[in-house]
Structures are given as C-alpha cells and as structure tokens.
Fold this protein.
Amino acid sequence: MPGMAGAPVRSFDYVNHPYATVRAALAADPVAVFRSATRAAVARARSVAAQLHVSIAGVDVATNIAVSTGEIAEEPTGPSGGPVTRIPIYWEAADRPGLFPFMNAVLSVYPLTSTETQLDLEGHYEPPLGLVGLAVDALGLRRLAEASVHRFISDVARYLREELVDADKRP
C-alpha cells in the first residue's frame, strides 16, 4: 500500500457509549463495522450499494470502496490522558481505483468521559492520475477527499451509536 504521502485530512465524531464498549465493537471486526456503517448510510439515501458518498456544491459523487485495516494497536495514554486504540485504515475505489484517491489513515478511539468515546480519523490521501491528479487536486479534489472522510467518520459514529443502543436492549 502507498505510504503516508499526499494531502493530510482529519475528521472526528463521538459515540455516546463507554470507550470499552466502542473499542470492543470496533476491535472485533473493524472492516465489518465500516461496511455496515456505509451500507446503513447508503440505505438512508435509498441506494443499494456500499459507497463513499459526498455532495459538493449540490453535486452528488459516490463510489464503491474497498476498505482494509492494519494491525490494531493499544496505547495506555492517548489524547485525553486515558487509553487509546489505533486502527490503520486504507481505502480505495473498488472499481477503477486509479481514477480515485487512495486513503491511508489511522482511526484513533479514546474516552472523552465515562460515557462518551471519541473517533478521530487522521490520514493522507493520494490523488489519482499523477500530475493530472495533482492539478485536479488543486481545483477541488481536496475538498472532495475531506468531505468523504467527514462523511465516513460520521457514518461510523452514527452506526455505532445506533447499533450499540440496539445491543444494549437485547436480552
């Protein structure tokens, strides 16, 4: 996979559940959570495929993505002074990946309070198409990449908030 070159992007959201609960849900199968989160978001938008979906200036842009993760790391002290879980994430377009940016990021998960957990995605994207991609990036691809990262982390947080509530109600 490409290195951490390219333009930096960052987005964060929170889940109103304890860190241990959120961490356990993500650590069990992060790719399944990411797929379910994007599918749930797409279902809300009345589509049938798992996609990254953003709207820029009223224009909807979507593509199916292939998501993979690296080795999950646990650290005793994170940004809030408590533990942090870091999950490397990589995604690219499932079809014609050379036409879309490649994302190389780390999802940091840490407690904000005893009942709230922060999801913080920080990474870099690599524009497609070499020099042509760099020119397109300067004309607005960066905003598209930032919007897709924000939408992704928002979808994951929303999914976890809803899924963990449903899990709490099960016998």
The beta strands are 7-15, 52-56, 59-63, 65-69, 73-75, 84-93, 102-111, 117-126. Confidence is low (pLDDT under 50) at residues 42-51.
